[in-house]
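Board notes (copied after class):
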Amino acid sequence: MPEFALRKIALVTEEIFHEGGPVPSMPRRRAAALALVKNPFAGGYAKELESAMEDLKPLGIDMADRLVAALGGDISVIDGFGKGAIVGTDGELEHGALWHVPGGYAMRKRLGDSKAIVPSSKKVGAFGARIDIPLGHINAAMCAAISMRWKWGCRMARARTRSCLCLPWPADRVSMRAWAA
């Protein structure tokens, strides 16, 4: 059983008052939870990785719970989600893919009625790497009104052996057409 030792968690929220087009009546809110974990597979080859996804599920649930709380605790206002992973340079892209099931599972479990898959992004990157996290509507995989990307950076000490996992959510429904314009 691999150990994904947790180094730190960051929780970021933002309120968007205007991004072009008509000004919404309420600001749009977004939040992201980022976790920096040790990559137990860094620097070597592992034939079997799939079982490690189970080990990351508790972290996914914890991050999802933090996001729900940061957005006020009412899941009915959360209408979009996404996930991503940056793997340090001693890791492989497949190590970031380990976050696919635990990250998506956690958000869908907490949101209950979500019908769409959770859009994702992953990359191998050095210290200071940035990643675009795709965000999609929770019930429409290709809903153009909410389709967007949120750029995140994760400074990783010992970037060669760490992975940064991210779960961002937009919340507070407003006129999506006005918001996306």
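Comment from the instructor: The mean pLDDT is 77. Residues 58 and 102 are 8 Å apart (CA to CA).
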